[in-house]
Amino acid sequence: MGVSAIFVLATDLFFTGDARFLTEILLFGAAILVIFCENNNLRNLCSLQGEETKMIRQILFFLLFCGAASGQTMKIATYNIYFLDDGISAARKANLQAVITELDADVIAFQEIADKAALENILPASYDIAMIDDANEIQEVALAVRRPMLIHSSKFIYPSKEYDDAFPRSRNLLQVEVEGIGGIYYFLVCHAKSRRGGRAKTDMRRQRAAALIVKHIQENLTGKKVIVLGDFNDNPDDRSMNILEYGDANTSGGIDLGDDPFLFNTSEKFLDLDYCSWGYNYLYKKAEEDTFALTVLGAARENNKWRGQKNFDYFRDVRTKSILYDQILVSQNLKDRVGKCGIFNKSVAVRGQSSKIKFQNSRLIYTRRGDFASDHVPVWLVLH
To answer: Omega before 148 cis (within 30°)?
Structure first.
């Protein structure tokens, strides 16, 4: 069966209401497209030309449209993979691949990636990767999209050095335009400045980054389907996150007093449960069970306790270090489509020996290559 025949058959099934076989036809059509792309060494359909492009893109759009109309969902995740390069141990690679397989997400935002080869080393061939690779950057961001979803474009939003205070080095805000279930989406992948050096010195940098993200959305993406996700190095009640949620650079930190009026933070509800996304490896590195408990009692309270404090020692004074750094926020036009949300709690994501690194002349050097997947775990949601 050719791709044009699939298009005709799927059209008949869709408009006659025969849903019995529609899903199978859609999946078969998607598989045909994947095989076509791989056989022709095409990682990006946008590179095709002429009538071939027109036909394939029409079919792909129809598959995605029918998927939305027939109740298909789209799973989105964010995952900081601890200083991932393509020289990781075989054991760590196996653990990461197990996490990604179990996660089973259609779109995954990544942080702390050395280069594209590092991601290709762990991802299935069914994913395309949007990444602006800088040979001098060791903590890059990327977006992986599973076919038949389509990457239209990717770009840095604030590439000028004048924004390095907000977006360190080449850890810039990555915008990726994706054609998925229900239309076009704009993903903004963020890896905010860490708290290394102390919150008193670094809070303003994350707050400035948040304000710039809001500015970009207000000026360029109003009315679009927007998903902001990544490692924000703050929890949902910190000021940088409240700026994103309220769309106001002058908002304060603290527990929200009402609904998010600008970006809906789908991860905020995890605070009440003391769920985290960073630090589980230090608690469960010897886990024997298949899953681990997400609740870390006092995690949210401990973060809030030290907000705005200047004279404290992180290692000495902060008793609970696990925290919810990784989050997914969506524009208001997607809020009603948000279904299940979760944090990955399979032990394969946290057990094992941690890696050790050092920096030398701006280069990352592994002093020990452990087998743990990462010090973060994926955070995810499902869009209907």
So the answer is: yes
* Predicted local distance difference test score (pLDDT) of residue 50: 57
List, in order, residues 6 or more apart from 8 with CB less than 8 Å away: none
CA distance 196 to 201: 9
48 C-beta neighbours (distance < 10 Å), count: 16
Count of C-beta atoms within a 10 Å radius of residue 226: 23
Q: First CA to last CA across the chain, in angstroms? A: 30
With tokens 């899953």, the residue in question is: 291
Question: What separation in angstroms does the CA of 322 have from each of 190, 232, 305?
Answer: 20, 14, 14
Per DSSP, 278 falls in state B
323 touches 199 (CB < 8 A): no
What is the per-residue pLDDT for 39? 53
Question: From CA 132, how far away is CA 116, in angstroms rounded?
Answer: 9
Which range is least confidently modeled, 161-170, 188-197, 334-343? Answer: 161-170
Max CA separation in the chain (angstroms): 70
The letter for the amino acid at 84 is L
Q: Going by DSSP bridges, is the β-strand pair 225-231/326-331 parallel, antiparallel, or unpaired?
A: antiparallel
Q: Tokens 């699939």: give the residue.
A: 6
Q: How many CA atoms lie within 13 A of 110 on its CB side?
A: 32
d(CA 319, CA 244): 28
pLDDT tier at 334, thresholds 50, 70, 90? very high
What does pTM read for this prediction? 0.84
Residue 282 corresponds to which tokens in the numbers above? 């230090």
Cα atoms in the Cβ-side hemisphere of radius 13 Å centred on 268: 20
